[in-house]
Design goal:
Blueprint: H1 13-27, E1 36-39, E2 46-51, E3 54-60, H2 61-64, H3 71-91, H4 98-111, H5 117-138, E4 145-148, E5 152-162, E6 165-172, E7 177-181, H6 182-188
Parallel strand pairs: 1-3
Antiparallel strand pairs: 2-3, 4-5, 5-6, 6-7
Helix pairs in contact: 1-3, 1-5, 3-4
Bound molecules: zinc ion.
Length: 191
């Protein structure tokens, strides 16, 4: 996508949001709805943050408002942080792992193409799936009873989260301990 870079190279909130909006249009996500906090950090250009169920972006005015910062650096910073938002939203991951790199690739690939509704739909679906998974797994916690067709009644002793699922260690009344996936229990057991 071609940018009409303005002359002073400054990126106030309004301009950052224009870029977020553009990225949202490609992915079908809603990154522009997040708050933006500004810092004056000289070592961190930007960050995506997720704490206590709240998400927000941070950008450093020391760079974004500095006429000496090339526009490409500002755009790259916004995209880098947007990829973190996308990775967290679609895959539930933070950090610079394989899914984050995949998000970066998608953003850079998408950004040179025209808006594609099918791709936006793809990300919306992935996001919905990951949210449904999170809701499903949250329903299985320690101490909860599980009724298994073959082993009878059991109690969840511990849980361990894995990608898109939760492993439940269940102690059954017959003394047996089984590790079952929350998705499997959801489909096959009563609670
Ligand atoms: Zn990063």
């Amino acid at each position: 996508m071609n940018y009409k870079f303005n002359e002073n190279h400054r990126w106030p909130e309004e301009r950052i949001r224009q870029e977020l909006q553009r990225l949202d249009k490609f992915t079908g996500l809603n990154g522009n709805a997040l708050p933006i906090k500004f810092t004056y950090s000289s070592c961190t250009l930007g960050s995506f943050n997720s704490r206590d169920k709240k998400q927000w972006f941070e950008f450093s005015r020391a760079y974004m408002e500095d006429p000496g910062t090339p526009d490409q650096v500002s755009v790259d910073t916004i995209r880098h942080e947007y990829a973190h938002y996308m990775d967290w939203t679609v895959y539930g991951n933070l950090g610079h792992g394989p899914t984050w790199k995949k998000c970066c690739d998608e953003i850079n690939t998408l950004s040179v193409r025209l808006y594609n509704p099918a791709i936006a739909q793809h990300y919306r679906k992935l996001h919905e799936r990951s949210e449904a998974n999170t809701r499903l797994c949250a329903g299985y916690t320690e101490g909860q009873a599980v009724i298994h067709e073959k082993y009878g009644t059991g109690v969840i002793r511990s849980v361990r989260d894995v990608k898109e699922d939760r492993m439940l260690e269940v102690v059954f009344e017959n003394g047996q301990t089984k590790t079952l996936s929350a998705r499997w229990v959801h489909d096959h057991c009563r609670t």
